[in-house]
Amino acid sequence: LENRIYFDNAATTSLEPKVLEAMLPYFTEHFGNPSSIYSYGRDTRAGIETARKTIAKILNAQTSEIIFTSGGTEANNMAIKGAVNYLEVKTIISSKIEHHCILHTLEYLEKYQQIKIEYVKLDNKGKVDIEHLEFLLNQSKEKTLVTLMHANNELGNLLPIEKVAQLCTQYQAYFHSDTVQTFGHLPIDTQALNVDFLSGSAHKFHGPKGVGFLYMRKKSKVQSFIHGGGQERGYRAGTENVYGIIGLAKAAEIAYKNLDNDKQYILDLKNYFIQKLNLHFADIQIIGDIENSLYTVLNVSFPANDKAFMLLFNLDLKGICASGGSACSSGAASGSHVINTIMPNSDRINIRFSFSKYNTKAEIDSVIQILMQELL
Ligand code: PLP
C-alpha cells in the first residue's frame, strides 16, 4: 500500500538510510573474518571495536562491558540464565508484564533449575509496587536477581529505575533491566545507575534486525551462553554479525545525537493524538501509567462492540499498521498477557499506537478520520 501509515514502532522501526549506508561496505569490500589476522580481517575487527566504543560511550560504560548479541532476546536470556549459572542466583524477582523473552526464560529456570520466581505486585495501571519489591528483597535469603523492564513495550510504562537500582544495591541483589524499548530513546548512564545488566536491540531505533547488545557490569560478569569460538572475548561464540554491529552503532550514534529534538517531536505527536482522541471519542481510555510513560508508546482502549472488534483488521485494510493486544476474554485470537494481567476481566479492545520521528501530524489526522469512520 502506497499510503501506508506505520504506527507500530515499538514492534520494529524502519532502517535509517544513513545506517544502511554505513553497513553497505561491510557486505562488499570489508568481508574479511574479524578473527583473521591479515588486513581484511583487521578492517572488520576495527569496525566492530569502534562500534563497541560507540555503545560503551553512550552508556557511560567500559568497552569490555559490552557484548554484541543477536538482539534483545538473546541479551536478556544471557543475563538471566548467566546470573543463575555463574553468579549463584537462586531467587529471581520480576513482574508478570515483562516481555516473553523474560517470562519464558523464568518459567524455564523454575521448571528445570528449581529457581524460585517471585512476581512483584502491580497496580491496575501496571505500575510496580515498590514497597512490595522491597518486601520481596528483604524476605529473600538467597542470592537474588531483580529483572524489571525499563519501559513496557505494550503500555509504555516507565520503571522508576533509579529507585529499583538503589533497592537492589541496598539488599545486595543483582539488577537486570530490559532496556530494549528505551535504549536509543532515553539517556542511560550505567555509572550513575548501579545496574548489573542491560539489553538493547538495534531494530527498535532505526537499526537493522537481528543485532543487539548486553551490557554486563565489570564486577558481575557471567560467562558464555553460546559455546564455540573465542569471539567477543569468549563471552559469545560465533562469527560476528559485522554489518549488523556496524548498523547498531550507527543507529545508536544518530539516535543519541538527535535525542532531545526527536523526543520532543515524537512527544508532540503523541500528545496531539491524545488530544484528538479525547475530542472525538467519548468512551476511549488511555491505559497504562500515563504520567510516567515512554513518549513513543500510546495504548488506547475502546469499548467492546461489533465495530471495535473489527477495528484492527479494518485499520489494516486501510493501510494503518498498529498492534492489537486485548484481554483473552474479548475473543481476540490471542490475548495479551500484559492486558490480561492489569485488566483481567475487561472486554475492551486495546490498540497500541507507537511512534517514530518519521511520523507526522497529518498521519494522525488520517488515522483519526478513519477511526471516526469505523467507530462512530
Ligand atoms: N524486550 C522488549 C521489551 C521488547 O519490546 C522486545 C522486542 O520485541 C524484545 C525484548 C526482544 O528484542 P529482539 O526483537 O531484539 O529479540
Please supply descriptive tags for the structure shown above.
376 residues; alpha/beta; seven-stranded mixed β-sheet; three-stranded antiparallel β-sheet; 13% strand; globular; binds pyridoxal-5'-phosphate
What does this structure look like?
The protein has 376 residues and is α/β, with parallel strands linked by helices. It is 40% helix and 13% strand. It has helices at 17-23, 39-59, 72-86, 100-113, 130-139, 161-170, 190-193, 242-257, 259-280, 306-309, 311-317, 337-342, 361-375; strands spanning 5-6, 66-69, 91-94, 116-119, 144-147, 174-177, 197-201, 212-216, 285-286, 297-302, 320-321, 349-354. The strands form three sheets. The chain has a seven-stranded mixed sheet, with helices on both faces. Strands 9-10-12 form a three-stranded antiparallel sheet, with no helix packed on it. A two-stranded parallel sheet has the order 1-11. Strand 6 (174-177), helix 7 (190-193) and strand 7 (197-201) form a beta-alpha-beta unit. The two termini are 25 Å apart. The model has no long low-confidence stretch (mean pLDDT 95). Bound molecules: pyridoxal-5'-phosphate.
